[in-house]
Write a sequence for this structure.
C-alpha cells in the first residue's frame, strides 16, 4: 500500500467488535509470520495488548496481518483527522524517514556557546532588536543544519520521528534525547524573528510553520512519551511570546494564519492529558520488575536480587547484627517469593497509574498526592519486619513468604513513587497556552475577514473553530475573552485558579505571584 509509510494506520472497527468474547485466546498473525495465541486485554486505535502470564505485551496494528482470521483493515489514525482548513502541514517523501533527517540536522549543528539557550530565550521573548550580532553569526554558521531541520519537519511522522521503534520497552531501553533538536528549534525561531525584522515575511512564516510542525512531531511520539511531552512543553513555552508577537504583524496574510491554526489544532488533537505517557512509564517499571522475577527463576543469587530491590538495605537497617533473623528472611527469598513480589508491585503500579491519569485528566494533582500520602502512612505503621509478617500471617492465614513479598513490594514502591504532580501542573499550563494561542489566531482570522471582532467566542464556530477551547484551570469552562479597542485579550485563570482579570500575567520564573495565562493582540 503506497500510503502506508505516509501515515500511522489503525484498524477499522468491524461489525460485532463490541460483542467480541475476550474470555478466550485470540489467534494473532503478525506480518513477520509469527503467530501469537493470547487473550487480548486492550484494543485501541493504535495497538492491541495481550496478556502473557499476567504481563501485557503490545503489538502495533501496522505489524498485524490478521486477528482470528480477519484481515486487518487499515485507515487513518486520529492524527490524520482533517485540519480545520484542510491544509496538510506536510510535503512527504515515502522513502525518507524524518528521524534520519533530524539526526543529519543534529550532526551539522555547530558547537553553541554555553549561554546560548538563555540568550536565545531572552531575544525570543522580548523581540529581535539591534545588537544581536553574535546570534546572527551563530545563525549563519548553522544555516545548513537549520535547513535540514526544516526539511525533517515536513515529513509525516509514524510516531517515531526522532528514533527507530525500540525492539522492547523496558528499563534498558535508550530513551529519547532531543537536545540537538531543541537547540535547532530555538535557532529556527531566531531565524524567523530575524526575517520578520528584515521584512522577509514569507521566509519568516516558513520558519514559524516549521516550528509548529516540530511540536506536532513531538505530540505524535509513541515511545519516550513523557520526555517528548516535556519537550513539547518547553517548545511552546519558548515559542508562545514569539508567536504572539508574530500575530500582531499585519504583513502576514490569511493563508499563513490558516496554516498556523491548522498545525496548532493538529497538535491539540494529539493531547490526552498524559495518559499514554503515564501508561508507558508504568509498563517500563513493571518490565523491570518482571526481569527480576525471571532472573530468580533462572537461579540468579538472591543476594543480587535483594540488592536490586533494596531489600538488603532494609534488612540490615532493621536487624543489623541479628544474623539469625537476617538468615530467616533470606530463607524465604526464592522464586515463589519474587513471583509474588512482581504480582504485588504490578498491581500497585497499575493502581497508582490509574490515579495519576485521573488526576491529570481532572487537573487536580492533589488526588495523586493524597494517594501517595495515604499509601506512605499505611507503610509507616509497620513495625519490625518479621514481627509484622508473623502477625499479619496469623490474622490473614497466609504464608509468611507471601506476606513478606507484599510488605517489601510496598516498602520499595514507597521509596520510589513517581512524582507526577509537578508534571501535571506544567502540562496544563502548556495545554492552556496552546488553547489561548489557537483562539487568538482564530480571532485574528475572523478580524481579517470581517473587519471586526466577534462579541462572543461562540461566533467563531463552526467556521474558525469546531468548539470553544476550555480553561482547565477554571473548572473546564470556556476561556475568557475581552474586546479592547481594536484588539482583544484571551486568557486562562492560570495555576492559581483565580480570575485576575488579566491584570497579572503568569510567569514561570515567579510562579508564587500567580496570574493569568494571557494572549493579547492590538
Amino acid at each position: 500500500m503506497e500510503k502506508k509509510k505516509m501515515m500511522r494506520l489503525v484498524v477499522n472497527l468491524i461489525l460485532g467488535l463490541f460483542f467480541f468474547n475476550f474470555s478466550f485466546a485470540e489467534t494473532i498473525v503478525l506480518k513477520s509470520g509469527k503467530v501469537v495465541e493470547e487473550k487480548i486485554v486492550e484494543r485501541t486505535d493504535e495497538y492491541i495488548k495481550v496478556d502473557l502470564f499476567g504481563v501485557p505485551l503490545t503489538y502495533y496494528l501496522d505489524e498485524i496481518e490478521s486477528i482470528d482470521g480477519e484481515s486487518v483493515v487499515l485507515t487513518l489514525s486520529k492524527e490524520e483527522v482533517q485540519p480545520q482548513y484542510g491544509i496538510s502541514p506536510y510535503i512527504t517523501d515515502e522513502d525518507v524517514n524524518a528521524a534520519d533527517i533530524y539526526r543529519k540536522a543534529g550532526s551539522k549543528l555547530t558547537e553553541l556557546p554555553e549561554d546560548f539557550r538563555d540568550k536565545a530565550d531572552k531575544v525570543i521573548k522580548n523581540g529581535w532588536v539591534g545588537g544581536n550580532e553574535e546570534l546572527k553569526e551563530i545563525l549563519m554558521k548553522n544555516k545548513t543544519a537549520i535547513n535540514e531541520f526544516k526539511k525533517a519537519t515536513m515529513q509525516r511522522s509514524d510516531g517515531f520521528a526522532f528514533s527507530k521503534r525500540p525492539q522492547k520497552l523496558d528499563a534498558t531501553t535508550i530513551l529519547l534525547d532531543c537536545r540537538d533538536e531543541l537547540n535547532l528549534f530555538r535557532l529556527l525561531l531566531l531565524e524567523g524573528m530575524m526575517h520578520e525584522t528584515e521584512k522577509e515575511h514569507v521566509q519568516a512564516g516558513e520558519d514559524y510553520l516549521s516550528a509548529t510542525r516540530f511540536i506536532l512531531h513531538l505530540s505524535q511520539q509513541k515511545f519516550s512519551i513523557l520526555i517528548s511531552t516535556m519537550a513539547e512543553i518547553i517548545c511552546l513555552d519558548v515559542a508562545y511570546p514569539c508567536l504572539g508577537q508574530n500575530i500582531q504583524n499585519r504583513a502576514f496574510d490569511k493563508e499563513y494564519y490558516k496554516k498556523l491554526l491548522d498545525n496548532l489544532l493538529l497538535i491539540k488533537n494529539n493531547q490526552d492529558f498524559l495518559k499514554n505517557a503515564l501508561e508507558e512509564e508504568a509498563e517500563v517499571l513493571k518490565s523491570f520488575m518482571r526481569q527480576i522475577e525471571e532472573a530468580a527463576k533462572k537461579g540468579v543469587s538472591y543476594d543480587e536480587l535483594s540488592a536490586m530491590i533494596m531489600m538488603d538495605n532494609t534488612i540490615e537497617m532493621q536487624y543489623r547484627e541479628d544474623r539469625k533473623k537476617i538468615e530467616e528472611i533470606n530463607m524465604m527469598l526464592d522464586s515463589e517469593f519474587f513471583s509474588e513480589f512482581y504480582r504485588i508491585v504490578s498491581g500497585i503500579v497499575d493502581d497508582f497509574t490509574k490515579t495519576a491519569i485521573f488526576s491529570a485528566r481532572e487537573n487536580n494533582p492533589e488526588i495523586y498526592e493524597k494517594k501517595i500520602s495515604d499509601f506512605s502512612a499505611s507503610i509507616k505503621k509497620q513495625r519490625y519486619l518479621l514481627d509484622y509478617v508473623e502477625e499479619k500471617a496469623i490474622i490473614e492465614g497466609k504464608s509468611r513468604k507471601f506476606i513478606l513479598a507484599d510488605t517489601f513490594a510496598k516498602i520499595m514502591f514507597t521509596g520510589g513513587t513517581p512524582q507526577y504532580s509537578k508534571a501535571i501542573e506544567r502540562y496544563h499550563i502548556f495545554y492552556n497556552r496552546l488553547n489561548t494561542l489557537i483562539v487568538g489566531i482564530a480571532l485574528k482570522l475572523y478580524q481579517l475577514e470581517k473587519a471586526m471582532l466577534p462579541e462572543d467566542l461562540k461566533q467563531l464556530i463552526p467556521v474558525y473553530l469546531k468548539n470553544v477551547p476550555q480553561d482547565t484551570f477554571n473548572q473546564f469552562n470556556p476561556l475568557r475573552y475581552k474586546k479592547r479597542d481594536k484588539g482583544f485579550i484571551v486568557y486562562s485563570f492560570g495555576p492559581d485558579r483565580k480570575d485576575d482579570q488579566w491584570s497579572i500575567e503568569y510567569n514561570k520564573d515567579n510562579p508564587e505571584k500567580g496570574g493569568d495565562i494571557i494572549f493579547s493582540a492590538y
